[in-house]
Amino acid sequence: MYPVLFTIPFINLPIHSYGVMLGTSIVIGWFITIRLAKPTIPEPMLKKLILISALSALLGARLLSIATTFSSLDFSNPLSLLIPGHTGLVAYGGFLGGFLGAYLYNRKKNISLLAFADATSPSLALGLGITRIGCFLYGCDFGKPIPEDAPTWIQKLGVQFPNWTHRFADNDAFQHHAALVKGAPAFWHHVYSGALPESAAQSLLVFPAQLLASLNGWFALALTFVVRKHAIYRGQVFLFFVMYYGISRTLIEFVRDDTGRGVLYVLTTSQWIGLTSFAVAFVTHLKQRNLHSGNGTTRLH
Question: Residue 10's domain spans which residues?
Fold first, then answer.
């Protein structure tokens, strides 16, 4: 586990693995979206649209994180809470924020929102595949402890996250970086819950929820290209991505243990959003399929 990939010499500035993975996904997603959307959206407008949707996605991801962890935040400097750090982002907030930003710009410029949504779907899936690796390297979004009586093959899949004060005891730059003094998140969750003493070297054995989420993103990426090849209406790729992610994210949530995102009537915030978005996308798909099924179109791209 590498929460910090390296430290810039002389200024002792740590470069976080999560930030690197997030930045990498944004850059790659930028080029993929441009390539897929260029046939339907003028490139100058397209680049502005991608930038607006990316910034609004980051803001949305941070705002939903604030909303779901409101009671535990320090509001002495409210503006600082809006700045996405190496953690504190919620994927669904990013999706909703990015969609809203794209919608407002598309409405102003009269650009096809459905064409843009289809073009961004592979980038969204790719972002999940890459950034969840960053989550694993940092140790956030961790899974539930694996029972001691679980089958051997399940225990072999488990991971343990270290007490950073032990793992990086000789790294002065790391120790002096306030945001990283206490970690990994899984380790301290187990300490605060009374399952481990603060002197322990690592967390309990937990499900690798981050890697499962990453694999889910790569599978979603493959799905978007399959649907794109056979789509019969604009927006179908996006709707299938929403449906797939809504269900798969809901299932993955059952093995996650970072409860800070909030729970309402047994289900987490992300599960409620996932199930709602699936239902809306599914109904929309049925309507669109009925409208376009008789026109003989089998491919739009």
Answer: 4-141+149-170+204-231
Q: What digits encode the pLDDT tens for the residues 262-295?
A: 677 888 888 998 999 999 999 999 999 998 876 5
Task: State the burial class of residue 287 (Cβ atoms within 10 Å of its Cβ: 0-12, 13-18, 19+).
Answer: exposed
Q: Are strands 263-264 and 267-268 parallel, antiparallel or unpaired?
A: antiparallel
Element (DSSP H or E) covering residue 13: strand 13-16
Which amino acid appears at position 187 of this protein? F
Per-residue pLDDT tens digits for 102-131: 888 877 777 778 888 899 999 999 999 999
263 falls within a domain: no
On whether the pTM is more than 0.70, the answer is yes
Q: How many domains does the chain have?
A: 1
98: closest CA among 133, 140, 127?
Answer: 127
Rounded to whole angstroms, how far apart are CA atoms 207 and 293?
Answer: 43
DSSP state of 206: B
DSSP class of residue 159 equals B
**C-alpha to C-alpha distance for 5 and 13, rounded to whole angstroms:** 11
Q: Report DSSP state, residue 160.
A: -
Q: Distance between CA atoms of 97 and 230, rounded to whole angstroms?
A: 28
Please check whether residue 92 lies inside any domain of the structure.
yes
Residues written for the chain:
301
The tokens of 271 are what? 């599960």
- Does residue 259 lie within any of the structural domains? no
Contacts of 94 (CB under 8 A, 6+ apart): 57, 58, 60, 61
Do the beta carbons of residue 241 and residue 223 sit within 8 Å? yes
On the 0-12 / 13-18 / 19+ scale of CB atoms within 10 A, 85 is: middle
Cα–Cα distance, 210 to 137 (Å, whole number): 9
